[in-house]
Amino acid sequence: MNAIYLDHAATTPMSPTVIAAMADAMANDYGNASSIHRVGRDARKQLDAARAVLAASIGAKPTEILLTSGGTEADNTAIFGVAEARAHEGKHIITTQIEHHAVLHACEKLQKKGYDVTYLPVNEYGVVSVADVEAALRDDTILVTIMYGNNEVGAVQPIAEIGALLQNHPATFHTDAVQAYGLLDMQVDALGVDLLSVSAHKLNGPKGIGFLYVRTNTKCTNLLYGGSQERKRRAGTENVPAVIGFATAVTEAAVKRDAAITAYKQYRTILLDTFEQAGIAYKVNGEQGLAHVLNIMFAGTHVESFLINLDMSGVLVSSGSACTAGSIDPSHVLVAMYGEQAEELRSSIRFSFGQGLSDEIIRDAANRVVAIVQRLVK
Hints:
- Its cofactor is pyridoxal 5'-phosphate.
- Its EC number is 2.8.1.7.
- It catalyses: (sulfur carrier)-H + L-cysteine = (sulfur carrier)-SH + L-alanine.
- The chain is α/β, with parallel strands linked by helices.
- Helix content is 42%, strand content 14%.
- It is built from 13 helices and twelve strands.
- The strands form three sheets. Strands 2-8-7-6-5-3-4 form a seven-stranded mixed beta sheet, with helices on both faces. A three-stranded antiparallel beta sheet has the order 9-10-12.
- α1 (16-28) runs antiparallel to α9 (240-278) and α9 (240-278) packs across α13 (359-376).
- The longest helix has 39 residues, at 240-278.
């Protein structure tokens, strides 16, 4: 039985165009971009060109793009970097209860060091209130870190509205845009953010590469020390082939974005219509924010046995964040939305779409899901 991969929010297969660009770079752009000879200069030229593509994708300056090993490092650099740089001004941080663990665990670490962290709630659709952000602000608030789009339920946060609010407050504003980048238009000036994290492997690029946008003059100390790479902000020889692959993926995603969003919305409709016609009990978790994420509670099922059955039938999905795979703990996102005793915590599955799918494939997957639900729910 053919496998149907519906876990693109966890990671995406690399685009053939990206693979080709990286293979060419590995063969021809092997120089150290810090070397002054011609091979090094050629690598630097390719690195600068790729960085310009990444910067243009969010309306930033190339000098404001800090290359990282991915979204986790970008989030950690933003949070720990601002906390250390601004500790003398205050130690209060605002975030939400539904952040990725790269943010939540960083904030928990800072709490152990004496920082005060406010974890804002979300509504039943997974969206934080701008009024709650405003009410939580204090004179000693140095950082507000709120994700752009949630990786488990797809809820999109009011980042631009929060950015406008913070124009009248000195707090630094960071958003984890890893799951939304490539699907939503994001211009950093319009959003009002000072820091923005993204990762290449969420949009058919390579793993192990991402960037942190750092607005000019934003106070943010380094995490890594060594050489003078990245304008002395992140030591370590740049991974030129990966950056080229990243820029290639970004360019391709921009060209395909409108068509992809239309397709993902159609896939969502096919799944829900099939479930409806089969008469199975289900409920969509969260708002229809990110088009590629669809989190559904199937009444009467248990997530562990459901996932095993789905895997055996060739439908590859997840129960939420891939970073907690194997954990028996309930989704912290669904807990924040529904409470600790809600059935959604025990019976919810995340479907997420990407390249390589079609209406026919989705319809096949939907029918397989229906058969499993009908077997599991007596």
